[in-house]
C-alpha cells in the first residue's frame, strides 16, 4: 500500500504529523520540542540539555525506574537528544505497543522536576562537560562555534559550562520548562503502522492539560566576520584544523545542493578531501559537512594531522574548496 502523510493540530496547539505505512512491521513516535541552546539566556546555558535528563527522572505518576522498566517490558528502543535548536524524545516499538510507548513519553514530558533529582543530576551533567573537555575536537568545535556566531546564541554550548550549570536553580528550570515545553511549541511525529485518527484522539486526552504559551524564538542580529585563533596544548601531539563558512538555512531549497556539495568535498571516503589528504597520508581525518539551521547555516571542514604537516594540509584543503565548482 502507498505511504500516506497526515497532519492535525490539537486545540492547545500541539502539532501531530504521521507517515503511515500499513505494511510496516514497526512503529515510532517522537516528541520534538522547538527549544535548544539558542533559546537559552547566556546565564542559563545548558538548561535545555539538563532538562532533557530530568525528563527520565520520572513524573508525578512514574518513577525513573518505572520509566526504564515499562519501556523494557514492551521491548521498545527509546532515547532523547538535545541540539542547539531542538530537544527530542523518541521510542521505536512493535505497532501493538505504540499506545504504551506514547503513554510513557507523553507522561515524562510533564516531569516532576523534584529538587532532589535536580541536585543529583547536576553532578552527572558536570561530569559530562568534563568528559567533553578532554576531547580535543569538541573543545575546538565549541570554541569555534562561539567565535563564529558571536554574539548570536547559536554559539551557545549545548551542555552549557561548569559555571552556568553549577549556578542553575530548579525554579529557573521550571520557568524555562513552562515557557518552552508548551503544546504549541511541540510536534508529535509518528511513522510506521498506525491508525492516525486514533493517535490524534489519544493525544487529545493525554496532552489536553499541556499549556499554550505562544512563545517565540528570538532571532539575534548577526553578521559573518573573518576570524582565526589558535589553541595550544601540551597534552596532545596532533594538529586539529576546523573551518566554518556561511551556508543555506534549513528552510532554503538550496540546502539540497549544499548537502551534496559538502558530500563531494568531504565525505568520509571517496571525496576530494579524502583523496587529497587521507589517501596520500597527510592527514588522519579530512571531512566536510553541511549544517542547515533555522535562519542560517554553515559549512564545516575538519582535518587532523601531524603538526609539521599543518600548513600543507590547510593549503590543500583550501585549494580543494577553490576548485570545487570549476571542476
What does this structure look like?
The chain is an alpha+beta fold. It is built from 11 helices and 9 strands. The strands form 2 sheets. Strands 1-2-6-3-5-4 form a 6-stranded mixed sheet, covered by helices on one side. Helix 10 packs antiparallel against helix 11. The protein is globular, with a radius of gyration of 22 Å. The chain starts with a strand and ends in a 5-residue tail after the last helix.
Global Rg: 22 Å
Which structural class fits the helix and strand makeup? Answer: alpha+beta
The total beta strand count reads 9
Question: Mean of residue pLDDT?
Answer: 96
Q: Which percent band covers the strand fraction?
A: 15-25%
Low-confidence stretches: none
Order of helices and strands: EEEHHEEHHHHHEHEHHEEH
Shape type: globular
Strand order of the largest sheet: 1-2-6-3-5-4
What profile does the largest beta sheet have?
Answer: 6 strands, mixed
Relative helix content: 25-40%
Instruction: Report, as a whole number of angstroms, the end-to-end distance.
Output: 43 Å
What's the tally of helices? 11
Condensed summary:
The protein has helices at 47-55, 64-73, 98-108, 115-133, 136-149, 162-167, 170-180, 196-206, 255-266, 272-278, 310-322, and strands spanning 4-9, 15-20, 27-33, 77-82, 87-93, 186-192, 239-246, 283-293, 296-305. It is of the alpha+beta class and 327 residues long.
SSE map:
Layout: E1 4-9, E2 15-20, E3 27-33, H1 47-55, H2 64-73, E4 77-82, E5 87-93, H3 98-108, H4 115-133, H5 136-149, H6 162-167, H7 170-180, E6 186-192, H8 196-206, E7 239-246, H9 255-266, H10 272-278, E8 283-293, E9 296-305, H11 310-322
Parallel strand pairs: 2-6
Antiparallel strand pairs: 1-2, 3-5, 3-6, 4-5, 7-9, 8-9
